[in-house]
Amino acid sequence: MDVAEFMGIERVSDTTWQLEVAPHVVTPGNFLFGGCGLGAGIVALEAASGRPTIWATAQYLSFAPLGATMRVEVTIAVAGHQTTQARATGWVEDREILTVNAALGRTDLELGGVWVEPPSVPEPDRCPPRRLPDLMRSSIFEHVEARVATGRSYEQLDGTPGDRCSALWCRVPGHLEPSAATLAIFGDFLSGSVSHPIGRRLMGRSLDNTLRTVQLEPTEWVLCDMRMHALVGGYGQGIAFLWSERGTLLGTASQSVAVKEWRV
């Protein structure tokens, strides 16, 4: 199974795809999970351009509710010798839901390096499952397995401030090969890490997601090494470094989130 099959996105023409907003791609609020929206745009853009993603950013404009069909339309703005600049727009009927802008391509330059290091955390099978309240279970969180590498679980958030950094091991049971779209899904788990430095049970609604790919390699689990930068005026910002099991940097994901307290 690849990530397109997991999400259920299908091509209907040279420049148009569609995605049924089913329970396995929604938030606990029963609308399309932001990472799946970005992932759907990436799938369409890579197929239309024939090139891999360098970076892609999604701006979320409205909600695609459970049961809706989102239409994804691709526009190739510029196709150069090495880089394609393009955008994908998601619609539900006549409502614009999201816009994904991206650059796609690769060169054969051999110079380079990686100048960040993964955190030292236990292996996935030594980490406890991420525990969520019952009302969050009928959503994508039932279909992506997450284990707590560092940080506190939901029930441990007692108002005591904590570390701005936390980490989750993530995988889709059945195992998806890493792709830019897969990383987009995992990267959106960053919105939940805003609770850790505050120590309170908060909800983060993504306003934007940006994915930058570095290098892809086979790995069953992806480590989401999440680092919150700030929460001011109800809006938070942070970045996630996405690592393979052997410590290869696969990409980075950053976002802005609108934050409110989760009251149950």
Please characterize this protein's 3D structure.
By secondary structure, the protein is mainly beta. The chain folds into 2 domains: 3-105, Beta Barrel (Porin), CATH 2.40.160; 124-261, Acyl-CoA thioesterase, double hotdog domain (Porin), CATH 2.40.160. The chain is built from 4 helices and 12 strands, in the order H-E-E-H-E-E-E-E-E-E-H-H-E-E-E-E. It has a 12-stranded antiparallel β-sheet with strand order 1-2-4-5-6-3-9-12-11-10-8-7.
Query: How many strands in all?
Result: 12
CATH topology of the largest domain: Porin
Sheet having the most strands: 12 strands, antiparallel
CATH superfamily of the largest domain: Acyl-CoA thioesterase, double hotdog domain
> How are the strands of the biggest sheet laid out side by side?
1-2-4-5-6-3-9-12-11-10-8-7
What's the arrangement of secondary structure elements?
Blueprint: H1 3-7, E1 9-11, E2 16-20, H2 34-49, E3 53-60, E4 69-79, E5 83-92, E6 95-105, E7 145-150, E8 165-171, H3 180-187, H4 195-198, E9 202-213, E10 222-232, E11 235-243, E12 249-261
Antiparallel strand pairs: 1-2, 2-4, 3-6, 3-9, 4-5, 5-6, 7-8, 8-10, 9-12, 10-11, 11-12
Give descriptors for this structure.
Porin, 264 residues, 2 domains, 12 strands, twelve-stranded antiparallel sheet, mainly beta, 40% strand
Structure in a nutshell:
The chain is built from four helices and twelve strands.
